[in-house]
């Protein structure tokens, strides 16, 4: 199954459709994507696994591997670090995004296979499908949807599926 994300901010999948927030810089070809540019990379990105806040929600139903987010969970976004675009434990000596957030954006996170096989330093990190702000304000480069839509679309997603952006 493929889910498609349009430049107009809509995500569609077999049997469903929802509004989506995209990166503050819009869509950008993956070969032009850079760390911190705020763009959502164009391409077909496989689903790797789902992370969730077990202290806030029950586990999402999906065919993907599902792992709880720990309070010390982070994601390295320092291009020169050997753990770039990989999960890390916080505190971490290089720059890393905190996954255990005070807001609800990472209550459910689908990790996408962007820049991970192999990792290209500086080409962008932590590209996820996650929960959107209520006003659908732009992301830092991810795709975000309402929690109910995310839970609904994940029910049909497995490791053979892709999020197609653009």
Notes on the structure:
With 166 residues, the protein is mainly beta. The protein has a single domain, classed as L,D-transpeptidase catalytic domain-like (Beta Barrel). The protein is built from one helix and 13 strands, in the order ββββββββββββαβ. It has one helix at 147-154; strands at 2-5, 10-13, 16-19, 27-29, 40-52, 66-68, 73-76, 87-89, 96-98, 108-112, 128-131, 143-145, 162-165. Strands 1, 2, 3, 4, 5, 6, 10, 11, 12 and 13 form a ten-stranded mixed β-sheet that branches. Strands 8-7-9 form a three-stranded antiparallel β-sheet, with no helix packed on it. It is globular. The two termini are 16 Å apart. The mean pLDDT is 98.
Mean pLDDT across all amino acids: 98
The span between the termini is: 16 Å
Quaternary organisation of the protein chains: single chain
Query: What sort of overall outline do the alpha carbons produce when their principal axes are compared?
Result: globular
Query: In the residues, how many domains can be counted?
Result: 1
Instruction: Output the CATH class name.
Output: Mainly Beta
Strand content: 25-35%
What is the CATH topology classification name?
A: L,D-transpeptidase catalytic domain-like
Number of DSSP helices?
1
Largest β-sheet summary: 10 strands, mixed
Uncertain segments: none
User: What's the Cα radius of gyration?
Assistant: 15 Å
Portion of residues within helices:
under 10%
Structural class: mainly beta
CATH architecture: Beta Barrel
Quick one: how many beta strands? 13
N-to-C series of helices and strands = EEEEEEEEEEEEHE
């Amino acid at each position: 199954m493929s889910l498609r994300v349009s430049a107009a901010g809509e995500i569609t999948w077999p049997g469903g459709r929802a509004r989506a927030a995209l990166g503050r810089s819009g869509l950008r070809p993956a070969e032009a994507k850079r760390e911190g540019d705020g763009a959502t990379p164009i391409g077909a990105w496989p689903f790797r696994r789902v992370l969730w806040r077990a202290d806030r929600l029950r586990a999402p139903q999906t065919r993907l591997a599902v792992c709880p987010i720990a309070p010390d969970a982070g994601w390295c976004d320092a291009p020169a670090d050997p753990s770039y675009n990989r999960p890390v434990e916080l505190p971490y000596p290089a720059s890393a995004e905190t996954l255990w957030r005070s807001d609800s954006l990472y209550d459910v996170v689908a990790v996408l296979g962007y820049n991970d096989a192999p990792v290209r330093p500086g080409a962008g990190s932590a590209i996820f499908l996650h929960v959107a702000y209520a006003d659908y304000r732009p992301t830092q480069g991810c795709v975000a949807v309402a929690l109910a839509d995310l839970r609904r679309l994940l029910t049909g997603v497995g490791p053979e599926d892709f999020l197609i952006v653009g």
